[in-house]
Specification:
The structure holds two protein chains of two kinds.
Chain A (H helix, E strand, L loop, with lengths): L2 H4 L2 H15 L4 H28 L2 E4 L10 E4 L1 H28 L5 H19 L3 H20 L5 H31 L4 H7 L7 H18 L8 H7 L2 H26 L2 H7 L2 H20 L5 H21 L3 H32 L10 H4 L1 H15 L5 H15 L3 H27 L14 H19 L2 H15 L7
Antiparallel strand pairs in A: 1-2
Chain B lengths: L8 H17 L4 H27 L5 E8 L2 E6 L2 H27 L5 H20 L3 H19 L5 H33 L16 H14 L11 H4 L5 H28 L1 H5 L2 H22 L4 H21 L3 H32 L10 H4 L1 H15 L6 H14 L3 H27 L15 H32 L5
Antiparallel strand pairs in B: 1-2
Helix pairs in contact in B: 1-2, 1-4, 2-3, 2-4, 3-4, 3-9, 3-13, 3-18, 4-5, 4-9, 5-6, 5-9, 6-7, 7-11, 9-12, 9-13, 11-12, 11-17, 12-13, 12-17, 13-15, 13-16, 13-18, 15-17, 15-18, 16-17, 16-18
Classes of the chains: A mainly alpha, B mainly alpha.
Chain lengths: ~500, ~500
């Protein structure tokens, strides 16, 4: 079986496995099956990425119906990179999962992991498919599964958070569907490559303009781009810790990828950035998100909410890179997409370890905990360095590219804004460190132990990856540059 | 010199870090912590002197540890100024070790593992700054130094200590991230390089207007050099236990600041390019202003440590002025003053700590007659004061000599006058404590018996005081070492 034939299995394995896992009894068995499925996906994705970078796009027609008639999976550097990230993060968070899930979810775990695999299959499907309508279908699969996963949270507010996400997420998906329908109406095709060929003739068509606007707003919702971020903080805060760690690293990233795919491949940048004031709009929203997210994060006492608002800010960084519409800017966006997944997953895992032992993620309950859980909180502090963007961490690399991209277009004020928001990150990370190490344990607090190794080891693995990708940038910078080139096409001249 | 080991710069930088980890694991066992502190400081000293031996015999030491992005690496290289800084830090560390052990034990402080671990990390970071081959590496260790000293400043754990420590950290981080970091990015964007190169890298890439802005960003961003208005952190840091004030806030941290300033002037801007920038004069006069104002403030401080802190602010500006005069003589004088002031000021702080340990006195006005009870300490104080003022028989004479000559050479009459005026002010605020101690009678009711601080504290301060005298005779070595920078390399 050659690699091309293997490629669709990145999506198919979790999709098929979810049906099997749903039937498995007990707790360990479903987890093992899920882990194997995610690992298999990740391995195939890792094999596909170098091929997609080296040999150019790979196309797999489903049922041998040639595109644009049948559905096509079309993989270039951009989506191969995102697919590897999603499958890889799924596998890594799964390593962390069993203890945490066992503590939070009662009864057998078959259904839970089946839903997880559905969400994963959905995200991977969105990433790999070359068919616009297929994107919508997979988006719904992953979203519905995600709503259910969030509702598993112990806190009763998780139900409300899931419901709110359901409403907002459905609005976003509907907007996407309307946009796709408009495109289908005027072109008669749903294949993305085919759309890209036909749309240039329809530059002045109002339906095409509306379609672009609908798709951007719809994906902006799923991406949690300010001011469409309202679903995110509560969803992240009250979901089970494992779900939060997984979603933080993957869900918004895939939404960003879809937005980029439409803006750059389907519509072509010299259209998207001309008919709509896209550059300005995205830049304003990105900067607003960076500030508002960081600002609100500075005052959160619930640490999962704090990290969630920090995510809103980080999405701002990615979109800022996109808004510059240059190769360096887009590279920065992809870099941060990848690096932020590592950073935020590590942070959520560390907080998950704290919750596993203390049952609370409140800042006050963390006081003096540095002595009792030194490894967990050191992991948090190190991952915090990465989100601040300290040299030798992954976060530094993406911010460095973002700053370079800003300097390239002469936007010095953006450099100042990036620096200021990074300082805000210093503040919200520092609060935690000061509480953990420089405050006494509250009166009457029960003594707690260090988190179990089953949680610590995966956490430290991700923390280690943060430093590994801060030093060895060949994979991330290489793949991000290839991804940006794949989207921009060779030598696109922008206005 | 070949008897000593010759390690690579990165290994030397790692020694204190490794020591810190070992010390952290020895938490709760004071004896082991002390032993490990001795071992780390000793190994570090041997390694630095071994490296110095190799470098002075003509070996070129350059080491690229890791290339993060093309052209952007964590890399080290040894040049005269950095070597001097590392020699200073390593030598004073081994002298400060017994002092710190004595002071912390007799002062009844807790949390010794955290204290000595952070102490070691700070020295490792200082070595990293000294050996850094490019701006990125320097920035990295500069920030490690800021963060690692925070727990030391806040060591008392009182609300006052925490407040002081917060001011300290916030000022240092803010200046470096808001000013230094953008300047570094700008340099990279404009020249495609961040490597320290003799003669500078900016000339020809950055026009004088942009260069002027860069200079302001860089020098005010070097918060550790304590140029006004970013000097507040230094008096705030005085809430720390005295061993911290002595080694870190008289030597490692502040010298790192002026070292960065000198290094930028010589290796990023280049002295010739500096002369073409309008902001050179601006920074020059800000530094001269800082020098005089801080001296005036120091005169009015009754708290001995606060007085010494403001004196440090003033003396740091001597060196920044030396860098901004854009004259080789003044730059060399600046480098030498780093050394001389290091020895002088650590002696003064050691004495202040010894006085506190022996008699619980912290104010200058309480020192009357103390010379009779603590003759060794007060004699050492006198020598340290002479060195900071710049009077024979101490090494301070020579560094000030070169600084003043440099000001004269470059035709800055006002700066020359400022140097002289500030030296007079130094006398006014540093000699009264000694005069009070030796000439005034003890207050009523105090017995005149001999009562020195513990020997672990008195011996180090005697040694550093003797060091100031030795430097009087050995100053030519420092001059020759740095003259190499302008002679076109080592060979």
């Amino acid at each position: 079986m050659n690699l091309l034939a293997l490629m669709p299995f990145i999506v198919l394995i979790p999709l098929i496995a979810s049906g099997v896992v749903a039937l498995l009894p007990g707790r360990t068995l479903p987890w093992v099956a899920t882990l194997l499925a995610a690992l298999a996906s990740a391995v195939i994705a890792a094999l596909v990425l170098p091929e997609a970078i080296g040999q150019g796009p790979m196309s797999y027609p489903f049922g041998n119906w040639p595109p644009p008639i049948g559905i096509e999976y079309r993989v270039d550097a951009a989506n191969a990179f995102v697919a590897l990230l999603v499958a890889g993060m799924a596998a890594i968070t799964l390593l962390w999962a069993p203890k945490s899930v066992a503590a939070e979810i009662e009864g057998r775990h078959g259904t839970f992991y089946a839903l997880f695999l559905l969400a994963l299959a959905g995200l991977l499907g969105i990433t790999l498919t070359g068919d616009a309508f297929n994107v919508f279908v997979f988006l719904e699969i992953s979203s519905l599964a995600t709503y259910a996963l969030i509702a598993y949270g112990q806190d009763r507010r998780a139900l409300l958070a899931a419901f709110r996400y359901l409403i907002m997420g459905t609005v976003g998906a509907t907007f996407l569907l309307i946009g796709i329908a408009f495109l289908y109406m005027v072109t008669g095709t749903l294949n993305m490559a085919d759309l890209a060929e036909r749309l240039p003739e329809l530059r002045d068509n109002n339906a095409v303009r509306a379609a672009l606007a609908f798709i951007i707003v719809g994906m902006g919702l799923k991406l949690a781009l300010l001011p469409l971020h309202l679903w995110l903080p509560n969803a992240y805060a009250y979901a089970p810790n494992f779900v939060t760690a997984f979603l933080a690293g993957t869900a918004t990233k895939v939404a960003l990828y879809v937005m980029l795919r439409f803006v750059f491949t389907v519509f072509a940048p010299d259209y998207s950035f001309v008919v709509l004031p896209l550059s300005t709009v995205l830049m304003v929203l990105a900067v607003a998100g960076m500030f508002a997210g960081s600002w609100v994060a500075m005052f959160q006492i619930h640490l999962k909410r704090m990290l969630a608002y920090s995510s809103v800010a980080q999405v701002g960084y990615m979109v800022l890179g996109v808004s510059l519409a240059t190769l360096t800017g887009l590279t920065a966006a992809f870099l941060h997409l990848f690096n932020h997944a590592l950073i935020k997953t590590a942070l959520f895992m560390a907080i998950g370890c704290v919750m596993y032992r203390t049952g609370s993620a409140k800042l006050d309950d963390l006081r003096g905990l540095g002595r009792e859980m030194p490894w967990t909180l050191t992991a948090f502090a190190l991952a915090g360095l990465s989100i601040i963007g300290v040299p030798t961490t992954a976060g530094f690399i993406s911010k460095w590219y973002l700053v370079l991209a800003s300097v390239e277009v002469g936007a010095w004020w953006l450099v100042a804004l990036i620096v200021i928001t990074s300082l805000m990150a210093v503040y919200y990370i520092w609060r935690v460190i000061e509480a953990a190490w420089f405050s006494p344990r509250p009166q009457g607090a029960v003594a707690v132990q260090e988190a179990p190794l089953a949680l610590l080891l995966p956490t430290w693995l991700v923390v280690g990856l943060n430093f590994y990708f801060g030093l060895d940038t060949r994979l991330t910078v290489g793949a991000s540059t290839a991804a940006a080139e794949a989207l921009l096409g060779a030598g696109v001249a922008l206005p | 010199m070949s008897l000593l080991p010759q390690l690579s710069p990165f290994t030397i930088v790692l020694i204190p870090f490794a020591g810190a980890i070992a010390i952290a694991f020895a938490a709760g066992r004071p004896g082991l912590i002390q032993l490990l502190s001795w071992l780390t400081a000793g190994a570090f000293l041997l390694a630095v002197w071994g490296l110095a031996g190799a470098v002075l015999t003509g070996t070129v030491v350059e080491q690229a540890v890791w290339e993060i992005l093309p052209g952007m690496a964590i890399a080290f290289s040894i040049e005269p100024l950095g070597l001097l800084f590392a020699l200073l830090a390593s030598t004073l560390w081994i002298l400060a070790t017994p002092y710190a052990i004595g002071y912390m034990t007799h002062g009844g402080y807790g949390n010794l593992a955290r204290f000595f671990a952070c102490y070691a990390i700070a020295l490792g970071a200082a070595a990293g700054i000294a050996f850094a081959d490019n701006l990125l590496t320097m920035f990295l260790f500069y920030e490690i130094l800021s963060v690692s000293t925070y727990p030391l400043v806040a060591h008392d754990g009182t609300e006052k200590a925490k407040r002081g420590a917060r001011t300290y950290l916030v000022l240092l981080l803010l200046t470096s991230i808001c000013l230094w970091l953008p300047a570094m990015v700008w340099t990279w964007a404009a020249t495609g390089s961040m490597t320290f190169t003799p003669g500078g890298i900016l000339a020809g890439h950055v026009d004088p207007v942009a260069g002027s802005i860069l200079l302001i960003l860089f020098l005010f961003g070097t918060g550790k050099a304590a140029l006004m208005p970013f000097h507040r952190w230094l008096p705030s840091a005085m809430v720390a236990p005295t061993p911290v004030s002595a080694l870190l806030h008289a030597v490692a941290v502040v010298k790192a600041g002026v070292f960065v300033a000198l290094k930028l002037a010589i290796y990023i801007f280049g002295l010739d390019y500096l002369k073409t920038l309008w902001s050179t004069d601006f920074v020059l006069y800000v530094a001269a202003f800082t020098m005089l104002t801080a001296s005036l403030v120091a005169m009015h401080q009754d708290n001995l440590k606060a007085r010494l802190a403001y004196s440090t602010v003033s003396q740091l500006s001597y060196i920044v002025v030396g860098a901004m005069l854009a004259s080789q003589l003044a730059a060399i004088g600046g480098g030498m003053h780093m050394l001389m002031h290091g020895f002088g000021k650590i002696t003064l702080f050691f004495c202040a700590g010894a006085i506190y340990l022996a008699s619980k006195k912290t104010l200058v006005s309480e020192l009357d007659g103390l010379g009779r009870k603590m003759p060794i300490t007060m004699t050492a104080f006198l020598l340290g004061a002479l060195c900071v003022i710049g009077l024979p028989p101490t090494g301070g004479l020579w560094s000030k000599w070169h600084l003043v000559s440099g000001a004269f050479d470059s035709g800055h009459g006002l700066i020359l006058a400022a140097y002289l005026a500030s030296t007079l002010l130094n006398i006014v605020y540093l000699l009264p404590p000694v005069l009070r101690a030796f000439l005034k009678p003890l207050p009523e009711g105090e017995s005149a018996g001999f009562k020195e601080a513990p020997w672990l504290c008195v011996i180090p301060l005697s040694l550093t005081a003797l060091g100031t005298i030795m430097l009087f005779f050995a100053a030519q070595g420092g001059y020759n070492l740095m003259a190499v920078i302008f002679d076109g390399g080592w060979n």
